[in-house]
Amino acid sequence: MWFRRDLRLEDNPALCLAAASGSVLPVFIFDDHLWNRSGDNRRVFLKRSLQALSESVGGALVQRSGEPADVLLNLCVESGATNVYASEDFGPYGRQRDEHVSKTLAAAGRSLTLCDSPYAVPPGSVFTGGGTPYKVFTPFFRAWKGHGWSEPMPAPEPKWYRELRSGPTPTEPSSSVDFPDAGEQPAWIVAEEFLASRVESYQTNRDLPAVAGTSRLSPYLKWGVIHPRQLLAKLGHSPGEETFRSELCWREFYAEVLFQRPDSARESYVSKMSGMVVDSGPDADQRFEAWATGQTGYPIVDAGMRELLATGWMHNRVRMIVASFLVKDLHLDWRRGARLFMTHLIDGDLASNNHGWQWVAGTGTDASPYFRVFNPTTQSKKFDPQGEYLRKWLPEIAHLPNKSIHEPWTEKTGAPAGYPGPLVDHAVERKASLDRYEQLKRTWV
Ligand SMILES: Cc1cc2nc3c(=O)[nH]c(=O)nc-3n(C[C@H](O)[C@H](O)[C@H](O)COP(=O)(O)OP(=O)(O)OC[C@H]3O[C@@H](n4cnc5c(N)ncnc54)[C@H](O)[C@@H]3O)c2cc1C
Question: What residues contact 155, with CB distance under 8 A and at least 6 apart?
Answer without folding.
Answer: 9, 10, 11, 12, 15
